[in-house]
Amino acid sequence: MHLHLHPNRKEMASVKEERTTTGWAARDSSGILSPYTYTLRDTGPEDVYIKVLCCGICHTDILQARNQLGMSHYPMVPGHEIVGEVVEVGSDVTKLKVGDVVGVGLVVGCCRDCNPCKTDNEQYCNKRIWTYSDVYSDGKPTQGGFAGAIVVNEKFAIKIPDGMAPQQVAPLLCAAVTVYSPLRKFGLNASGLRGGILGLGGVGHMGVKIAKAMGHHVTVISSSDKKRQEAMVDIGAHEYLISSHATKMQEAADSLDYIIDTVPVFHPLEPYLPLLKFDGKLILLGAIETPLQFLSPMILLGRKTITGSFIGSMKEMEEMLIFCKEKGVTSIIEVVKMDYINKAIERLEKNDVRYRFVVDVAGSNLDQ
Fold first, then answer.
1. Residue 208 φ/ψ, nearest 5 degrees
2. Distance CA 108, CA 62 (A)
3. Is the pLDDT score of 287 beyond 90?
4. What tens digit of pLDDT does each residue of 3-38 get?
5. DSSP per residue, 187-235
6. pLDDT tens-digit series, residues 315-346
7. C-beta atoms surrounding 362 within 10 Å
8. Would you say the C-alpha torsion 322, 323, 328, 331 has a positive or negative sign?
9. How many helices (H) and strands (E) does the chain have?
10. Is 22 helix (H, G, I), strand (E, B) or coil?
11. Which of these, 131, 266, 262, 122, lies nearest to 206 by C-alpha position?
12. Which residues, including other chains, have CB under 8 Å from residue 295's CB and lie 6 or more apart?
């Protein structure tokens, strides 16, 4: 009898210790989110347990919730522009303490041994662990920031500099670092350069602000005139170019050191390549599941580069936050509660947001 009871007592104790949280999850490729309660893993020696304050909504969240990248696991709690407060730290945690406000981005794990990991480029590790729709090293599914709490390894939580508002910071953790990283890596962060920003959504609006803060002359390139006022007045671009205006596009040939291409859907590259100077770079930031096309002489005859870049490293994220604080760079946001999230996703798809939705998670009733 005693032997029979012993494992049950032990089992009951461990059940009692399990922490749960409620997030808003997609159950299938419809991508519709609704409340979902699940177990969080224990706070390991190098982990921090974070109470989520707010979380930005990124276009990638839609792609993942609807399995448009073909790698989704359900139930899935998206959200990877997470700002929260540390409420518990593991025994080996050295850089964070209880009460710190921290940011978590799109990656929460890496192998630590490969070349990208050893050179502070861990976002390119082939064994990276995504913040959600993935499996952590202990076998538990990872879930994102549209939830009350999250547990992450301290390496992947960045202390937010004092004085920065959490809701303002959320989009910086993905949209801003995605632009900051390639400008920094490709040596395009010196002042006096001329840059183009293609697409004026969440990433594009941060692109204009960061490039301006670096001292660049910034041209927004768009398919129509409808965002001219926003680009020039609200965000402060220097010029606005409509890609279908052949004469203006011709006049702008050979004028840009780089183009940041933020458009996350298929589009031809040919109209934009002639805008680049000799040795200019077209930097792709949008995840596009359709093959892109261009004619090679457009590249060959100016030694131009088409390249891509993916979010940023933890080191770059830290650097970017300090840069944004020093230069007074903020994101333009619309704050919503969790019960509005499906509507927000619908609007984001139609580009009907200026320029990033941020969910006030701590101020939301997550259960309904």
1. -60, -45
2. 19
3. no
4. 444 444 444 444 446 799 999 999 999 999 999 999
5. T--STT-EEEEE--SHHHHHHHHHHHHTT-EEEEEESSSTTHHIIIIIS
6. 999 999 999 999 999 999 999 999 999 999 99
7. 15
8. negative
9. 11, 19
10. strand
11. 262
12. 270
The DSSP code for 41 is: P
What the block records as the tokens of 73 is 């696991």
Q: How many C-beta atoms lie closer than 10 Å to residue 225's C-beta? A: 11
C-alpha 164 chain-centroid distance: 18
Give the side-chain half-sphere CA count within 13 A for 91. 3
Can you read off the two tokens belonging to residue 13? 């104790």
282 near 292, Cβ under 8 Å?
no
Query: Distance between CA atoms of 136 and 296, rounded to whole angstroms?
Result: 42
Which residues are bridge partners to 221 per DSSP? 198, 241
Q: Using DSSP, state whether 342 is helix, strand or coil.
A: helix
Nearest to 86 by CA among 150, 161, 41: 150
